[in-house]
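Design a sequence for this backbone.
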């Protein structure tokens, strides 16, 4: 599928077309590549909640597009009424998922643009334009991040990744998989190992699908084979995305990231994180970030098949925290932060 914006074969996850939001329905992958079309922000909120769209940057842009739909849906005749409608939509969109900071970032950016407008018509136009611009910028940022990260990877590396931090987690190109794409584009021959990422299987359903779709040499492993592959010299480097990075360099990402980082440390394998500045939260303390807890049925079954006894207690956190001492570098569009992270992250923002 040739993409008009990225000019490559990478998937386009979310798009604004004819005043509607078009998304790949990620719950249907890898079996069906289905696009859904929304003209109501409540549908976008549902899509975020039910993982039709997921991945921190894609959620951020979905929030912005959700508000763009909200201004078009509004019957307001004054700026105050429109801002009040927008505030209601913002609340509904914000409450869909708690951990990825990009959601609040995307919503806030749009609300700030709306506040600057004078008339209802002007606000509507400016909000839609800003959301579209944010989506285009997401691709550019990923490409820059990719270039910044590609120098850290060598010819013939086998790179492990977890969850999906690819085109499917962004508008296109990806963060961690963006670095992998840029490494290949720089002429290096690389292989990828994707963990299946239980319980929702973003690794096998999405990363394996996306990388195969784009012609990468990718092998799928069960999450439990991370130690085996590292101990047997099958992995040279690890790269993952992030849902939120706080100023100390603690990285919130898909459940299982932390144990991969520990395992990488044990085997002397560099462990990198790739994330745009919109994934950094310089305000919230690590202990105050809400980790999303998901329903037990994701763990007690695979698809429609039950794999656990009835009424079993389940602990199903969607994310965990990787401490900075396990991280070899955090790749952003402004450069690569290295230990001591508090200082180097601050510098990235100063350069912004
Ligand atoms: O629950 P998900 O699928 O939204 O979780 C996604 C992840 O954890 C990704 O690794 C993260 O959002 C980075 S995506 C560029």
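Sequence:
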């Amino acid at each position: 599928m040739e993409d008009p914006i990225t000019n490559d074969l990478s998937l386009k996850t979310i798009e604004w077309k004819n005043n509607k939001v078009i998304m790949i329905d990620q719950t249907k992958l890898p079996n069906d590549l289905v696009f859904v079309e929304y003209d109501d922000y409540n549908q976008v909120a549902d899509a975020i909640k039910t993982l039709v769209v997921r991945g921190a940057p894609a959620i951020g842009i979905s929030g912005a597009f959700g508000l763009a739909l909200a201004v078009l849906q509004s019957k307001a005749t004054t700026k105050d009424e429109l801002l009040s409608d927008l505030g209601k939509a913002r609340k509904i969109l914000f409450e869909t998922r708690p951990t990825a900071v990009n959601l609040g970032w995307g919503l806030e950016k749009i609300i700030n643009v709306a506040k600057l407008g004078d008339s209802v018509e002007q606000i509507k136009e400016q909000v839609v334009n800003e959301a579209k611009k944010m989506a285009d910028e997401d691709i550019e940022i990923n490409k820059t991040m990719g270039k910044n990260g590609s120098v850290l990877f060598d010819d013939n590396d086998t790179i492990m990744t977890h969850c999906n931090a690819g085109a499917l987690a962004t508008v296109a190109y990806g963060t961690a998989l963006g670095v992998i794409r840029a490494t290949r584009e720089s002429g290096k021959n690389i292989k990828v190992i994707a963990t299946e990422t239980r319980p929702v299987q973003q690794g096998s359903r999405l990363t394996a699908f996306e990388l195969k779709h784009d012609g990468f040499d990718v092998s799928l492993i069960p999450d439990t084979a991370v130690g085996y592959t590292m101990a047997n010299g099958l992995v040279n480097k690890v790269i993952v995305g992030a849902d939120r990075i706080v100023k100390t360099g603690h990285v919130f990402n898909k459940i299982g990231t932390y144990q991969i980082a520990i395992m990488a440390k044990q085997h002397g394998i560099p462990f990198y994180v790739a994330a745009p500045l919109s994934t950094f939260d310089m305000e919230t303390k690590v202990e105050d970030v809400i980790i999303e807890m998901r329903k037990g049925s994701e763990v007690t079954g695979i698809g429609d098949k039950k794999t656990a006894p009835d009424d079993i207690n389940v602990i199903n956190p969607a994310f965990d925290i990787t401490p900075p001492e396990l991280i070899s570098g955090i790749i952003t569009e402004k450069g690569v932060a290295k230990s001591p992270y508090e200082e180097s992250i601050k510098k990235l923002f100063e350069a912004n």
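Residues 1-7 have pLDDT under 50 and may be disordered.
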